[in-house]
Every structure is written in structure tokens, then in C-alpha cells.
Design goal:
The chain has 98 residues and is an alpha+beta fold. The protein has two helices and six strands; from the N terminus they run αββαββββ. It has a domain of 65 residues. The chain has a four-stranded mixed beta sheet. It has a two-stranded antiparallel sheet with strand order 5-6. A hairpin with a 5-residue loop joins strand 3 and strand 4.
Length: 98
């Protein structure tokens, strides 16, 4: 006998627009040698200024903090040059120290 409450709730779920989550590894950074933990950020424009929780592949719940952040330059072209991605981070709240 299926649980009718679960079925009714699943029918009410609506897919929201996708958001971009940023995971910055401090262990492999040559610039931020003082970082001991990985950093998890989400753009406040996409999250409404709220933190976002996401379950990763290992089943660990990660909390992504809102921080003005954007990435660009990942496009591949037909020329033989590699893409040069850029990561822009606004340190308005003083959360990052390099």
C-alpha cells in the first residue's frame, strides 16, 4: 500500500531554476596556502541571499554560503588555444583572506 501523503507531496514539487554552486579547494591552491578547508559558495543573486545545502556524491551535506561570485571564459573555440576561465569574487563581507 503506497503512502498517499508522499505521493501527494511529490505531485506538488516544482522544479526551480538551476543555480551554480562553487567549490574552491584550498588544499591545491598556490595563492591561498592559509586555507585549510574547502570553500563552498553560491551567488546571492541566485540564492536570494540565503545559504544553500546540497548533498554531494558521497552523501555529505555541504552548505554553500552566499558570496558575490561569478565564473566566465569556459567556452571552447575552434582555434587551437585553450580556454582561460576567470573567477571573480567580491570580498564585500571580508570572508576571504589570501
Amino acid at each position: 500500500m503506497p503512502n498517499t501523503n508522499i505521493i501527494q507531496e511529490s505531485r506538488q514539487l516544482v522544479q526551480d531554476s538551476p543555480i551554480i554552486l562553487f567549490h574552491i579547494s584550498g588544499s591545491s591552491s598556490t595563492y591561498a596556502t592559509s586555507w585549510t578547508n574547502d570553500l563552498y559558495f553560491v551567488s546571492p543573486e541566485q540564492s536570494g541571499g540565503n545559504s544553500v545545502q546540497y548533498v554531494d556524491r558521497d552523501g555529505v551535506i555541504r552548505t554553500y554560503q552566499p558570496l558575490p561570485i561569478a565564473a566566465s571564459g569556459f567556452e571552447l573555440s575552434g582555434s587551437n588555444s585553450l580556454p582561460q576561465p576567470k573567477l571573480s569574487i567580491s570580498n564585500v563581507y571580508g570572508q576571504m583572506k589570501i
